[in-house]
Amino acid sequence: MLLDVKSLTKRFGGLTAVSNVAFGIERGEIIGIFGPNGSGKTTTLSLIAGILKPTSGVILWKGNDISTLSPFEVAQQGLVKTFQNPQLFPELTVVEHMRIACHLHIKRELGINRLRTLIGGMPVGLDRLLEQKIDQVLALCRLSSQRNEQAAALSYGGEKMLGVAMGMLCEPELLLLDEPASGLGHDEIANLDAVLRDLKSHGVTLCIIDHKVGFLGRLADRSIALHHGAVIASGKTSDVLADESVVAAYLGKKHA
């Protein structure tokens, strides 16, 4: 098993945001995590990514406990998280953002000090190799035609896709996506769906949280439904969506 989450709990003072959550992810899967607002989706993803630390429980990556690692150390292991609203520099172009994102990839793969790459230049030949990698990822994420556009000129869907592309430069084994379909129109969701399927075909395992159950229903191999911080159903996505407790959580008990 690639990722094994065991009895994960997170409390903020007297509030329990995640309660005894447990699930696993196998290599090559697309896993969906969904639930109403406040169900614990983003907190769960942030715990896996090392942004938050669990109150109790463990997160095993290839059998090793990563529960106490920093976000950077988690990313070095091969788990990379995207954000619902990527923090971009409006005046920088798409390709300039990609070059910035290369520095994490350099340190992880080659052990080169990031400061040296920033102030001392790239080792001979490495800059050309990284430009090739950028071109490949931009093509995979359907951003090649926008490589020289400033971030300020991108649509919301384009901003989100740039966040995905920047994450892909780290060559993740597991990509954690936070609400990638939120705020997108029909055509943008169709494009996102196609890109994520392509990422899977290139060997990337995906864990996606979203409140758009139709989007996850088409894409995810398996899903976990959360409500009030706890798992209420898990398994094949179509079965989870039909589960009475899930229907009740979304629509109210009278619909279950």
Short structural description:
The protein is α/β, with parallel strands linked by helices.
Textual characterization of the structure:
With 256 residues, the protein is of the alpha/beta class. The chain folds into two domains: 1-77 and 171-255, Rossmann fold (3-Layer(aba) Sandwich), CATH 3.40.50.300; 86-170, Rossmann fold (3-Layer(aba) Sandwich). 40% of the residues lie in helices and 23% in strands. The chain has ten helices and ten strands. The chain has helices at residues 41-48, 71-77, 94-110, 114-119, 126-140, 156-168, 186-201, 213-219, 237-242, 244-251, and strands spanning 3-12, 15-25, 30-34, 56-61, 64-65, 79-81, 174-178, 205-209, 222-227, 230-236. The strands form two sheets. A six-stranded mixed sheet has the order 6-7-8-3-9-10, sandwiched between helices. Strands 2-1-4-5 form a four-stranded antiparallel sheet, covered by helices on one side. A hairpin with a 2-residue loop joins strand 9 and strand 10. Helix 3 crosses helix 5 (126-140) and helix 3 (94-110) runs parallel beside helix 6 (156-168). Residues 3-253 form the ABC transporter domain. This is ABC-type branched-subunit amino acid transport system ATPase component. One of its GO terms (molecular function) is ATP binding.
